[in-house]
Design brief:
alpha+beta, 434 Repressor (Amino-terminal Domain), Beta-Lactamase, 2 domains, 5-stranded antiparallel β-sheet, 14 helices, 5 strands, about 45% helix
Length: about 290
């Protein structure tokens, strides 16, 4: 396995699902208000408009201007992908671009991400897209995957949720499997299953639920728990025992859908006892790769 996964191309065209008639602007605004727990009055105060104006937009009595849609979306902290959808529902063109990470415009960002990945060595770090497909990764992440996941699942731009949930994936060695799975599935449902899930997101969620049918469902609207922000993972495979935690970082104030949906996930040993086996795992896998073993 190469030390650095290559960059995946990301589609720029609007999906078929997005082009089909969908909810009205008013319906979408109501859903986002409910998700944020915001009343019409509070939204009006945040946006600097009257509550009557908000009510009229939601009921369709007023046709919102493009600027009004953007202001209301900003007040509700709506993701950029969904802001485009609000604009489309109101009859306006998309404002936020969806630039492939492999594009020339992203060359500087790719350099920054590679710098961060390399500086995180000897610990694992990966860059994930909206669906948790791996776009970039450092050498330690390749070693971690190779040690825990069956070779049949490993490939270019592998989906890291699948690498965890699949019966031949890392779940076999995760002692606190139910806690980890519930946290990961809950996060996926919040990010992919709210309001406008696309076909790829729906298919991935169905696949993950199929791998864990007995896992109690958690509402996508539930607030994140501390485990979602700092996820502890206890791994035990033969003589290898590791206690890790992972964190997710995002880019600040992006103005591109791709940039907002990028996730930088980093892994750390959770205690001194896990430091030595982690370094041994990484160095052993590196030696195997060097001599062409496995």
């Amino acid at each position: 396995m190469s030390a650095m996964a290559s960059i995946a191309s990301m589609p720029t065209s609007t999906s078929r699902l997005d082009r089909e008639p969908g909810p009205s602007l008013g319906q979408l605004l109501r859903k986002w208000r409910a998700a944020r727990g915001v009343s019409q009055l509070e939204l009006a105060l945040r946006a600097g408009v009257s509550s009557r104006h908000v009510s009229f937009i939601e009921t369709g009595r007023t046709h919102a201007s493009r600027q009004s849609v953007l202001i209301l979306a900003e007040a509700l902290d709506v993701p950029l992908r969904e802001r485009n959808r609000l604009l489309e529902a109101a009859g306006y063109a998309h404002v936020y671009r969806h630039t492939p990470l492999s594009g020339d415009e992203m060359s500087h960002l790719r350099g920054v991400l590679q710098f961060l990945l390399e500086r995180h060595e000897p610990y694992a770090a990966i860059v994930l897209d909206r669906y948790s497909n791996c776009l970039m990764g450092n050498r330690a992440s390749a070693c971690m995957v190779a040690a825990l996941v069956d070779d049949s699942l490993i490939g270019e731009h592998a989906n890291h949720l699948r690498l965890v949930f699949h019966p031949l994936g890392a779940r076999r060695w995760i002692v606190n499997w139910e806690d980890v799975a519930r946290s990961l599935l809950g996060r996926a449902e919040r990010e992919l299953g709210q309001f406008a899930p696309d076909e790829a997101g729906l298919a991935l969620l169905a696949e993950l639920r199929g791998y864990a049918p007995d896992l109690s469902r958690r509402s996508a609207a539930d607030a994140p728990t501390p485990g979602d922000l700092l996820l502890p993972i206890h791994i035990k495979k033969a003589d290898l025992e590791l206690r890790l935690f992972s964190t997710i970082m995002t880019l600040g104030t992006p103005q591109d859908v791709t940039l907002q949906e990028l996730r930088l996930e980093t892994f750390f040993p959770a205690d001194p006892e896990s430091e030595a086996p982690w370094r041994q795992m990484v160095s052993t896998d590196a030696e195997r790769s060097r001599f062409g073993d496995g």
